[in-house]
Amino acid sequence: MRETMNWLDIGQMDDMGRMDTPVHRLDARAKAMVTMVFIVTVVSFGRYEVSALMPFFLYPAVLLSLGRIPPGAILKRILVAAPFALVIGVFNPFIDRQPAIVLGPVSITGGWLSFASIMLRFALTVGAALTLVACTGMHRLCSGLEQLGCPRVFVAQLLFLYRYLFAVAEDGGTMMRGVELRLTGNRHIGLGVYGSLIGHLLLRSMDRAERVYLAMVARGFDGEIRVMQKTVFRPVDIAFVCCWTVLFIAARVWNPAAELGRLLAGRLP
Amino acid sequence: MHMADALISPAVGGTMWAISGGLIACCARKVRQTLRDNLVPMMGVLGAFIFAAQMINFSIPGTGSSGHLGGGLILTVLLGPHAAFLVIASVLTVQALFFADGGLLALGCNIFNLGFFPAFVAYPLIYRAIARGQYGGSRAWAAAIVGAVAGLLLGALSVVLETKASGISELPFGTFALLMLPIHLAIGVVEGLATAAVVSFVARARPEALPTASGAGTSSSLRSVLAGLAIATVIIGGIASWFASTHPDGLEWSMAKVSGKEKFDAPAAGIHQSAARLQEKTAVLPDYGFKTAEAEPATESWPAVNAGTSVSGIVGGLMTLGLACGIGFVLKRTRHAGNDELAGHRTDG
After folding, report:
1. Percent of residues, chain B, with pLDDT higher than 70
2. Do B317 and A261 touch (CB under 8 A)?
3. Higher pLDDT, B291 or B208
4. Low-confidence ranges of chain A (pLDDT < 50)
5. Is there a contact between A44 and B290 if contact means CB atoms under 8 Å apart?
6. Cβ of B137 under 8 Å from any chain A Cβ?
7. What number of C-beta contacts closer than 8 Å exist between A and B?
8. Domain positions in chain A
């Protein structure tokens, strides 16, 4: 359900991406690389792993706070996207009923454990991706992608798509409001009306593309797409990549949560 | 059917990234070679159009529900396979980045499932062959419905295979396929109806906006549609029934598992072993990668875990979560205290 509410969301994400903080000033390539290392490390854990995933919350938490991104905005998006992982993961407790953890009278089955693991991975990976966009912004991210070797046509496509999202969505929203005002009481659109409605939107979009093209030609477009100026990979970016990568690998190899728990539980009377 | 990172393994994600990345590079080269300069802004705006079109729903006759355009097939009709594949890939990338619809590692899977099948299978082999260059009339409607259904079913089957090869979800192949395929059959019919409605409107209102049919409707069209349908049927029917017969039902499968038998039968083991081999090669830390991999029964070590270790695991996990969030909170406070340089320095350490 990609409803109108999400359009406000994407505008908010855009605003956050345009901010200027130490995290936003880091090179987009550095953040993109660290995000990918993060996701691969998180996903590489065994399927019953729960406690070892906890230290990984440090990365989005640090970036969000230094980037002055309200964590609620990211949390809301994670919750909105959760149903798919929930629907697939919720079968695990019913299929895998072998007890995995025994705490006195309570035993937790392997299915519940792997379900918890799936939901944690989901929160971490989705959170990291959203954090990347919120702390980088689409324009910086796209120029980073191009410098990382992404085909220029594809980068231009991403930028164009992003640039016209708001304009075309506004067109669609206006159209929808007109339809809603005319559908008194009965809010259903039949297939015939739908076809002409979307068809009109399509024709309008194509006209817009033609105008954009003419404007580009008027400004000297010669078929070659020039995306953006290059950014420089500074020492602070190298340090950012190295430190986080080492940290992720350390947390992957050695489970700090289990160690901490052993330390604390060991002192309990 | 956007896949999430949480349900795939690095091996599957990496492989599909490589495949989709290769397809994007190939399509980007093809698009650069075309002589249509206005293709670039057209692709961008049509990508935005797909987003806007997904906001608008129509009611499905006879049911209480509503449907909307997915977009893969109509983009291919308007732009041709190569440009359409790039547009679909860009739409999925923006969805992953801004809406958390599908993960970044799963992006390769999603681009392949939702982009490759409509653009390179359903359109050239099925849609074009049935429609024969017509954009209105029963032929065009049939082409859109059959094409959309075939594309979505192949995509759904691909989702099931990728999930199974990853081994995170416990769902048996047969059950998962039975869950996914009928739903996507219905979604495919809706998608086909929406596509045909829009295309036939444009064909009436402004026929010059649609690409002129060239090469379609030749004598080989029947053969190509049969070939396309045959490929789709063989892939979907063959693989699904093969797996369904090895796992007659979920209950029996889980009983076999509880009784301590080998987790998967031979056909699945093939996929898993090759995935595991690939994993060994690609994993950052091979020794630690996937210690519960399919080969060793993961459940064996778990019941042996004593309560003490479990308590420490839970306490430690919760404490670490608290610490991680706490550090974020403290950093925020220090930031507000107003020393950007200091805070910036801490990010690195």
Report:
1. 63
2. yes
3. B208
4. 1-5, 269
5. yes
6. no
7. 434
8. 5-136+230-257, 148-218
